[in-house]
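Homework help board

Subject: predicted structure for assignment chain

Our instructor gave us this sequence and asked us to write out the predicted structure in token form, then describe one feature. I got the tokens but I'm not sure how to describe them. Can anyone check?
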Amino acid sequence: MLGRHHQARELFRRATEAAPQVPQFLFNLAASERMLGEFAAAEARCDALLQRDPDNTLALSLRADLRTQTAERNHVSELEALLAKPGRADPVTLHFALGKEYEDLGDDRNAFRHISAGATLHRRRLNYNVGAELGVIDRILRTQTAQWLRDVPRGKEAVAPVFVTGLPRSGTTVVERIIASHSAVVSAGETGLFPIEIARAVREARGGAPNLYTLGRRYVEAVTGFAVPKGARFIDKTLQNYLYCGLIHAALPHAKIILLRRHPLDTCFALYKAHFSGTFPFSYDLVELAEYYLAFRRLAQALACDPAAARVPGSPIRGGRRRSAGREPPADGLPGPALGGRGHAVP
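My token output:
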């Protein structure tokens, strides 16, 4: 979560040496190596783990995602064989892994068949009502109006963090890395701290208006307490912060917010074929996914990403678009020829 992948890799390496019989340590090491771009090493760890535990769903999923599979090197037969043996590996994970590998091989029919099967099975496991999440966005649109944003008491923090936010697979990681390459900026990763501090402020308000000055101060203290040096300009890439742009603007008036959007078809299919861990439950049903995307787009337009619909002239919220060429970016997340769009400097 903190983005300290070099430290994580070293700690997991020590853990695997101290307790080589624990599969989770080996998987964690592979996951850290993946985050550092050491894909061959990560794949070797997954292969070693699967030799000990052939049904390890985490390793099966990670391995499929580490590189573009080819006709000469893929795991389709192995995954199909596991899927044909009920009670072994988790079928949801196997379907998503097969969807990824078939897509790499250009077999779109089988790719979609497995992605759809995995999403359907996963959705059945969830106790979830998309209407509740749509209601949250509707309440934001009703209450955080232009008048509210003009009149609400502002925080007084002088720090100017950069919030990079948007739906998954919309280009947030690429933008984060571009900005973090500047010598004056460090990335705090996906902290999740702003919504935590919002919940704290709401509890303390006891039904009244939360203190936005305290909210901004506590958020900055939390981030600088464990993630970045005090006084450093930092990036927070928590994806769901798009729900809190109005409160961020009010609590941290010097902050910059970059809200990424991508073509709806690319966004929705990228979400649909991803197997998330406990987040974005709307992504496993195509109708619910479309409904949520439309609500997200209404929110983005109202905030400032669409100049014609922007509520706040001079807002610090900047919209960025990622152009797609039909395929996902490379596994290392670095920008390739399919990426583009407007760029915004960080003053």
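Reply (TA_rk): Your tokens look well-formed. For the description, you could write something like this. Residues 26 and 300 are 40 Å apart (CA to CA). That's the kind of observation they're looking for.
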